[in-house]
């Protein structure tokens, strides 16, 4: 009897060990992401991406915010699948020319350059969406922000939708309740709205996205009365009331446009938020409480931002046999 029990438990142990080894070797077997997905197939991936982002950042510090935004605009439209990187084809109009992205979203060339380097070392192995997800993290770190563990193993989508990008991406002109609804439809929550808005601690916005606050707020013919007077004066000089100024740039965080910190929230507390959608966070008691907390507790924002970015990066991912590993990030494999 004892011998039979021993054999039975030995068999269970061996089966369990084999299953464990199988999952280690093939973490994708059950359609799951894994922190060490490329541990054997492309062990230097993180270093390749880190160097590619650093090289771009060295020549253009604005690229950090651009890569972070590119990642957000990808994941928010039908999930993280690198659809935002696809060029238009005869079969679909892609997301690059959607209103929120056209002549605005940047960083495509950085991802393409990193992809070229990755293909040199690990051909047909790493998806464009995993590269973009890692690049967004490295951009934040280079700007002085937090790092976070990134699960890998996403696969690239095979289509894109300009209409979906127009409909799903939050707009700086939308009421806060609409923006909250768009976040919750993705499985994110109110806290994610406030935390991920904090990405505006770095980067710039075109005057077109906030000019009505300066001259004709809600059709009143007057500036937004909630906007700080000194901020208003500076912005009106930066963005004069004429169409030719629409593409002019203003820092989203005038105190530290290139440094990842919590000054974005301090600006909101002081009525110096640039976008209507940002300043609107102070108009709701729940979001205002969070803004006040993050404005005084930098490390709270630091930690919560890392958690929200990890959640963002796992939205609607393709795994297993779904999607593909694109050879060129701008086009689907033939």
UniProtKB/TrEMBL annotation:
The entry marks the following residues as binding heme b, namely 200
Cofactor, free-text remark = Binds 1 heme b (iron(II)-protoporphyrin IX) group per subunit.
Q: Top enzyme class of this protein?
A: oxidoreductase
- The identity of this protein, by name, is Peroxidase
Which residues hold substrate? Answer: 170
Which co-factors does it depend on?
Answer: heme b; Ca(2+)
Write out the catalysed reaction: 2 a phenolic donor + H2O2 = 2 a phenolic radical donor + 2 H2O
Where does it live in the cell?
Secreted
Protein family (similarity comment): Belongs to the peroxidase family. Classical plant (class III) peroxidase subfamily. Belongs to the peroxidase family. Ascorbate peroxidase subfamily.
Q: Where is this site: Transition state stabilizer?
A: 69
Which E.C. number(s) belong to this protein?
Answer: 1.11.1.7
Coiled-coil ranges from the UniProt annotation: none
Tell me the InterPro entries matching this sequence.
Haem_peroxidase (IPR002016), Haem_peroxidase_sf (IPR010255), Peroxidase_pln (IPR000823), Peroxidases_AS (IPR019794), Peroxidases_heam-ligand_BS (IPR019793), Secretory_peroxidase (IPR033905)
Q: Which segments constitute the Plant heme peroxidase family profile domain? A: 32-333
Q: Which UniProt keywords apply?
A: Calcium, Disulfide bond, Glycoprotein, Heme, Hydrogen peroxide, Iron, Metal-binding, Oxidoreductase, Peroxidase, Secreted
Q: Which residues bind Ca(2+) 1?
A: 74, 77, 79, 81, 83, 95
């Amino acid at each position: 009897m004892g011998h039979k029990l021993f054999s039975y438990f030995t068999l269970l142990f061996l089966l369990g060990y084999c299953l464990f080894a199988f999952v280690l070797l093939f973490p994708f077997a059950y359609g799951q992401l894994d922190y060490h997905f490329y541990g054997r197939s492309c062990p230097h991936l993180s270093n390749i991406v880190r160097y590619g982002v650093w090289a771009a950042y060295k020549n253009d510090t604005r690229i950090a915010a651009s890569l972070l935004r590119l990642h957000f605009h990808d994941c928010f439209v039908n999930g993280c699948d690198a659809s935002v990187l696809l060029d238009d084809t005869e079969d679909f109009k892609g997301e690059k020319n959607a209103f929120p992205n056209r002549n605005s979203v940047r960083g495509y060339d950085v991802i393409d350059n990193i992809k070229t380097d990755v293909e040199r070392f690990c051909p047909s192995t790493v998806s464009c969406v995993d590269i973009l997800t890692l690049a967004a993290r490295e951009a934040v770190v280079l700007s002085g922000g937090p790092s976070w563990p990134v699960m890998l193993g996403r696969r690239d989508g095979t289509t894109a939708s300009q209409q979906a990008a127009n409909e799903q991406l939050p707009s700086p002109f939308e009421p806060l309740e609409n923006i909250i609804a768009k976040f919750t439809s993705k499985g994110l929550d109110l806290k994610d709205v406030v935390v991920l808005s904090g990405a505006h601690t770095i980067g710039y916005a075109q005057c077109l996205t906030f000019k009505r606050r300066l001259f004709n707020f809600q059709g009143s013919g007057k500036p937004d009365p909630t906007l700080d007077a000194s901020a208003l004066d500076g912005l009106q000089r930066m963005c004069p009331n004429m169409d030719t100024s629409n593409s002019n740039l203003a820092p989203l965080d005038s105190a530290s446009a290139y440094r990842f910190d919590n000054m974005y929230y301090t600006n909101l507390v002081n009525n110096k938020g640039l976008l209507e959608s940002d300043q609107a966070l102070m108009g709701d008691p729940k979001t205002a409480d969070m803004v006040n907390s993050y404005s005084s507790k930098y490390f709270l924002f630091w930690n919560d931002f890392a958690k929200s970015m990890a959640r963002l990066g796992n939205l609607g991912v393709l795994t297993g046999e779904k999607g593909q590993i694109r050879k060129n990030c701008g086009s689907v494999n033939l």
